[in-house]
Amino acid sequence: MSATPDPTLSPAAPRRSRGWAWLLLVLLVAAAGGYGWMQWQARSDREREAALDADQRVEALQGRIDAIRRDQRAQLQRLQQADATNRVLRDELLGIGQRAALIEDTVSKLADPDLHGAQALRLDETELLLSLGQQRLLIAGDLEGARRAYALAGHVLDGVVDPAYLSLRQTLQQERAGIEALGTEPRVRAMAELDALAQTITAAPVEPTATSTPDAPWWRRAFAGLIDVRPSDRAVAVQPADRIAAAAGLQLEISLARAAAERRDEAGFRAALQRAETWMARLWPESPTLHEQRARLRAIATRPLSLTLPTLGSTLQQLRQLRTAH
After folding, report:
1. What sections of the protein cross the membrane (predicted)?
2. What is the C-alpha separation between 302 and 266, in angstroms, rounded?
3. Which H or E element spans position 325?
4. Integer distance in angstroms from the first to the last C-alpha of the chain?
5. Domain ranges for the chain
6. If 285 and its partner were Cys, which of 101, 166, 178, 207 is the partner (CB 3.0–4.6 Å)?
7. How confident is the model at residue 143 (pLDDT cuts 50, 70, 90)?
8. Confidence band, pLDDT 50/70/90 cuts, at residue 254
């Protein structure tokens, strides 16, 4: 009887077990490789993220450093401005201290009711004197009266102790200096020269005629009462009636010129003197005397009749403004 063979003892079994072992080994190696690759990939991602994060932190730090630098420059400018402001405030504080001392002195003076009332009276008197001086000068042409009024106003204003009126004294001094420099009032001077000219009219010489001379021919002396021979281009009045009329006309024109000077009518003043020059040609023959009188008349016609003083009335105006402000 034959024995049956055992299947486990067959040669194909070892080969099959070795195949599974190799397969298992390959799987393990593949798994280890995949795991390693995954770990390497994760590490690379972490490194990239860390590098990116570092770059962002560097940029943020750079921005913070720039901001700090800007703040530092701004703080430096503020410190410089604060230093300049402190110097200005120090100067202003010194000025305020001085002003406070002046204000304290002024308040102590203003606290006296008697002093305040006296100051108001002095200011009223000063304003009245300035108004009178200006009116005397502009209306009446009284230069000396205006000077006295302004001098009295200066003396009264010296008694005002308020520092606010200190500049008013300087303005008054300037206006007084301008009035003192005027000399003679123009209208009065022109009228005085007209009076002096009118007095010379009575001394106008009579032009001698040819018939009245002792060396004239006998026929001229014989017919002198019947015939008067004179050049036709002469306008000098010879007859007494004509000379009286010419003198009256000249005096009338001079009177009209005086009236125009009184009312400061420069156009009427010059027109009257121009007509007076025509009458003078009726009284004087052509001679140096006539030329001299004409020159005097024309010089009088060029005289101004109004004062030219730019500072006139400036003190009165400033005083009224100061009193209104107070």
Report:
1. 20-38
2. 9
3. helix 314-325
4. 160
5. 114-183+318-325, 186-207+234-301
6. 207
7. confident
8. confident
